[in-house]
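Final report, closing paragraph on structural work. Over the funding period we assembled a curated collection of sequence-structure pairs, and we close with a single example.
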Amino acid sequence: MNADAVRVLILMGVSFCTALIVTPVVVSLLHRWRLGKQIRHNSAAPIYFELHKKKEGTPTMGGVIIWMTVLGLALIFLALDFFFDGFWAYFNFVDRPQTYLPIAAMLIAGLLGMIDDLLGIVRHGPNGGGLPIRFKFLMYLMIALLGAWWFWKKLGWTVLGVPFVGDFEIGVWYVPLFIFIIVASAFSANETDGLDGLLGGTTLFTFGSLAVVAFVLGRYDLAAFSCVVVGALLASLWFNIYPARFFMGDTGSMALGITMGVIAMLTDTVLLLPLFAPVLVFESLSVIVQMVSKKAFGRKLFLSTPIHHHFEAKGWHESTITMRLWIVSAVGNGLGLVLFFLSRLAQ
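Its predicted structure, as stored:
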């Protein structure tokens, strides 16, 4: 186990250093190719436009740094293990039952998110550019269906673990549960990615907790994969804290959200996910509550949603909001890990 722990930490360090070196190059290319964020002037969200119009032109699609670092290291160590068997097998974390699905999900989601970002940059699409919401939903659903099929048919997963209670056989109901978790994770990540470093910092805690869970469960390749994501996120945050040098974009938020949901399903900690990703839950709930309030009562409950924009409109500084939500994420993840360990001791 000590060797596995060292391996996971080394891979996280390699990922951090790699992304740290790659980031300035990628950001320079984003500037050169003029891939800047277009702040949409949407009449339904005038507060958002006024708060963020100064960020117009900031390079976007920076999320490629995260998922390309993760997938690049996966391919490099896989190839080294294949051609030079022996030492390099120690660093290869590509494994069919553990990491095939999260790797595929991250790649597909990252590429689809990139398409959305490019459409937004050229202002092609509704409300100033980008894919329509219904099309995004269909993309999330497509990835979720693929993952649900893999879990149910290929891996034979039909059991849901309930903390402190045990495992329950839910049969075919595992499919809609999987779909809901993946779609909800994707949407929540997209909603949260609205302030400099907010999504990166909150998901840093999430992937860290999921890595701990995977390691305790003996799924060392999955733990390594999660820690490689953590390393890339740390490097991204190095440049992306306020004032951000680039935006993550949908290519980053979609990849992180969907991958997070997949790992939660792989570790059977889906019922702890609200604690591992509390900020994402709050952000999505604020949007849902706002929509219901406007439809049912004809008025808004928040000045703007997601809720971080409400705090902005109230006069909170962007970095203050981000740091406080990081604290919320840290507390939630700490509580989630405590419940995870207590549940294992109780069973």
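Strands lie at 159-162, 166-169. Residues 2-268 form one domain. We thank the funder for supporting this effort.
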